[in-house]
């Protein structure tokens, strides 16, 4: 057979060899199997149709997603990446279905079985999503537990610091507890918050546990504000947990301060009476105040009556500042304030006596003058006037203040005091008896020059002139005189007279540039 006759045999024509296998007849089931297998993300549909590069592309896309997604964290995978991957899977499924429609597959078993396998393999991405969500939820739980632990450490580390320093950090921890309870109420961390809040309260109020009641007051006041941050439902009984403890701290701190005469006790008692008026602690306030008044009043008869008077005066004002209406003790507190004021007034006399004995004549004079003015019916008023006179004399002649004056009067020795000066004067004297009187100025008298008083033979209150004068009777002994001008800035003059029986004495007041005696 010749070469030009190739391709024919006995009259029949033979077609040329095909470059690829002829396409299979369309098969919808096969198409569905290939498309569904590609949805698994593993490119198994492409494997059945021997599209190895496309299968590898599916593997690469899935591996990239896994590398980005794992390990799971609370934020999860970027939405853009997930969207791109889903679009890729849909594209692979649609494309695989088109390829499988007319392409024979490397599957010898019945196609329905392949379809069942494809449907089963869809559980791979679905299960992966479920597992990833669980892993992300666990990561979120762990993150919340870490936040809880950080807040717990914040509370524990600041439990020994001064409250003013620790308070901002307590607020930070409380904000975490609140967020866990509200924004993540179903989390394991949120379930632990109630116990943490109990620890929070006992830690913040640590000073109360140690019975440092004054330090506990700001801590417990702060805890009463916590319901403004965390709801009462979450707090439960902790809502009122600070109340009784705060009332106790207010009472104990104020009572101690009252006993030591500290100035801040009215603030704490006042807060107790208004914030917890029906508490057992509020009912103890008035008895404590009454006891303090009684105890302080005893000091009037002690070694420091002036201090007691000052304390009673202060107590009266402090008690008067308390608002006891809500607690029903306003009247009793008012009576305590008046009693403190009355005891202070009565103690003023003892204070003046103490000042006089201590040779503090300036203070004694002021104290006794105030007592005389403020207590017109007191039994000690007469003697107080005598002590005031003696104190004024002792300001000029300190020796006059060595003995406390008495109310004695009169004597067997006549002493006449004349005023040889143009000024009205007050004559004060003290010794065996104490008293004072006034003399009008001498209208015809003048002030002597210093030179005149130095001349020999100088003698004021000379005879032949009618001087303003007064005669008093004094007992024997030493009497101290002071002549005080009533309306000028001249210096008072003094004289010390040792009086003896059988003599008549004359005191003469005259002025030079300052008063002199003769």
Characterization of this structure:
The chain is α+β, with helices and mostly antiparallel strands. The chain folds into 4 domains: 28-121; 136-239, no CATH class; 246-358; 399-517, Immunoglobulin-like (Sandwich). It is 55% helix and 11% strand. The protein has helices at 28-38, 44-48, 52-69, 79-101, 111-121, 123-157, 163-182, 188-204, 206-209, 213-223, 232-235, 241-259, 265-275, 280-283, 285-298, 305-320, 330-357, 361-374, 381-396, 450-454, and strands spanning 8-9, 12-13, 413-420, 425-430, 435-439, 469-474, 477-485, 493-499, 505-511, 515-517. The protein has a 4-stranded mixed β-sheet, with no helix packed on it. A 4-stranded antiparallel β-sheet has the order 5-4-7-8, covered by helices on one side. The protein has a two-stranded antiparallel ribbon with strand order 1-2. The termini are far apart. Residues 1-9 and 514-518 have low confidence and may be disordered.
Short account of what is shown:
With 518 residues, the chain is of the alpha+beta class. The chain has 4 domains: 28-121; 136-239, no CATH class; 246-358; 399-517, Immunoglobulin-like (Sandwich). It contains 20 helices and 10 strands.
